């Protein structure tokens, strides 16, 4: 039976169908069994309460008042499965071996070796909070990660540790060939971008080589390594010994947000752009310019499938040719990824996902409204969870983060980014009301 809003308001009791959902109702609320796109389980007073299975991760959980209190079957990214409670159970590894010790979960883990040359793992947030001074470390990022921006620069590392083309040189748009400057020493104190931190590096070349030689783990097989403690000195770090080569392509500054921690444009006396990440007026990059930029870097990165492009901005989905830019990436053998604030249309995101794009959504406390978070939730329910990354630009204990946790399906990982490790005291986290956020966005766009 199809259940209408009017029936629910009148306290309908019995089974019924809602949009993409079937459930049992008592007095207009879900009570009993129910199944939706994301979960099948037991409900009490309209909240999950009892046993459920996720249609996204296939985990089996026990809920109380809508909150997971126990995971009975947990599937890890490497294919391992834990069956049991937190205290008692069995780990069934993908290779058929077993263990009675449940792996400790570490969000967005990074490998490290400590002073005893033990391999351990640390979460990305905890790593950034250490504020390690990387200046002088051995870091051959010049041949791994590239960034290209509207100022006219082509750099190695999002950190721009090496500028192959600087803003004082002719713009990269005018070049016929890119010549790399080789440098293996970190010249910058702060390393705050995941892409840079995940590239192997060490305090010395010897430690870097030791890390790579003994780092024989698959990039997802981190769950059973010991967790890094405050007593561990980090001597070398990274994710995998064979990393994907990345190009972070800033296709323009135009953005419909004006976040306090994101720098606006700076121009010199002649009006030439010197720096900046966002504005609301810059011209869009053309398909021809985009293809030329990739063509310059193409000879310096490995062949398919070990190459990807992050299309970023500004807000890249504002570019009316975004699908054409993605097609250029695909034609050149790059895995396409887009970093977006989620304000693009749901139809556009579905078209991009259907093209094979990986979408990385960043939720920003000053501007992101509930409708944007719900839009991403709709996509998560319909697409491979690996294709969609959710980033919350705050610590996980802020009111804003808790709201994100409430809307995003509970079995979907949320990665927390406290302003790339710069904001230790939550000073940017003023959470406007929904109405204030909508008004602020309108005012900026005007």
Q: What is the structure about, briefly put?
A:
The protein is an alpha+beta fold and 446 residues long. 20% of the residues lie in helices and 27% in strands. α5 packs parallel to α6.
Question: What key phrases describe this protein's structure?
Answer:
single chain; 446 residues; ten-stranded antiparallel β-sheet; nine-stranded mixed β-sheet; 27% strand
Task: Write structural notes for this entry.
This protein is α+β, with helices and mostly antiparallel strands and 446 residues long. The protein has two domains: 5-99, Histone H3 K4-specific methyltransferase SET7/9 N-terminal domain; 109-445, no CATH class. It is 20% helix and 27% strand. The strands form four sheets. The chain has a ten-stranded antiparallel β-sheet, with no helix packed on it. A nine-stranded mixed β-sheet has the order 15-14-13-18-21-22-23-24-25. Strands 12-11-17-16 form a four-stranded antiparallel β-sheet. The model has no long low-confidence stretch (mean pLDDT 88).
Question: What share of residues are in beta strands?
Answer: 25-35%
Instruction: Kindly state the percentage of residues in helix.
Output: 10-25%
Low-pLDDT residue intervals, each spanning 5 or more residues: none
Shape summary: globular
E-strand count: 25
How large, in whole angstroms, is the Cα Rg? Answer: 24 Å
Q: Measure the end-to-end span.
A: 47 Å
Biggest sheet character = 10 strands, antiparallel
* Number of helical regions: 10
Structural class call reads: alpha+beta
**Global mean pLDDT:** 88
What's the number of structural domains?
Answer: 2
Strand order of the largest sheet: 1-2-3-4-5-6-7-8-9-10
């Amino acid at each position: 039976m199809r259940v209408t809003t009017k029936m629910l308001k009148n306290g309908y009791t019995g089974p019924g169908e809602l949009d993409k959902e079937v459930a049992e109702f008592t007095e207009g609320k879900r009570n009993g069994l129910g199944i939706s796109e994301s979960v099948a389980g037991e409900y009490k007073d309209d909240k999950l309460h009892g046993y459920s299975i996720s249609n996204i991760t296939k985990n089996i959980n026990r809920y109380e008042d809508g909150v997971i209190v126990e995971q009975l079957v947990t599937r890890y990214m490497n294919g391992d499965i834990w069956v049991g409670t937190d205290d008692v159970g069995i780990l069934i590894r993908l290779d058929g071996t077993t263990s009675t010790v449940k792996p400790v979960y570490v969000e967005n883990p990074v490998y490290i070796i400590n002073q005893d040359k033990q391999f351990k793992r640390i979460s990305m947030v905890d790593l950034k909070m250490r504020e390690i001074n990387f200046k002088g470390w051995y870091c051959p990022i010049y041949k791994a990660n590239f960034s290209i921006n509207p100022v006219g620069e082509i750099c190695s590392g999002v950190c721009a540790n090496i500028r192959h083309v600087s803003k004082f040189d002719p713009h990269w748009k005018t070049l016929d060939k890119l010549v790399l400057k080789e440098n293996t020493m970190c010249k910058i104190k702060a390393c705050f971008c995941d892409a840079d931190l995940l590239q192997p590096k060490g305090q010395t070349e010897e430690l870097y080589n030791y890390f790579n030689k003994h780092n024989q783990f698959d990039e997802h097989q981190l769950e059973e390594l010991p967790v890094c403690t405050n007593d561990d000195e980090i001597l070398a770090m990274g994710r995998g010994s064979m990393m994907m080569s990345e190009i972070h392509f800033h296709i323009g500054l135009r953005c419909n947000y004006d976040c306090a921690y994101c720098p606006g444009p700076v121009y010199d006396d002649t009006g030439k752009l010197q720096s900046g990440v966002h504005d609301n007026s810059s011209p869009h990059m053309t398909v021809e310019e985009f293809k030329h930029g990739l063509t310059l870097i193409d000879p310096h990165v490995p062949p398919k499938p070990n190459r990807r492009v992050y299309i970023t901005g500004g807000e890249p989905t504002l570019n009316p040719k975004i699908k054409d830019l993605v097609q250029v990436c695909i034609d050149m053998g790059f895995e396409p990824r887009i970093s977006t604030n989620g304000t693009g249309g749901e139809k556009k995101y579905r078209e991009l996902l259907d093209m094979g794009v990986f979408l990385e959504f960043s939720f920003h406390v000053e501007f992101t409204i509930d409708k944007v978070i719900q839009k991403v939730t709709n996509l998560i329910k319909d697409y491979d969870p690996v294709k969609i990354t959710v980033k919350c630009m705050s610590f996980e204990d802020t009111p804003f983060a808790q709201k994100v946790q409430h809307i995003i399906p509970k079995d979907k990982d949320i990665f927390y980014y406290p302003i790339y490790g710069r904001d230790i005291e939550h000073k940017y986290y003023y959470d406007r009301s929904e109405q204030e956020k909508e008004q602020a966005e309108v005012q900026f766009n005007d």
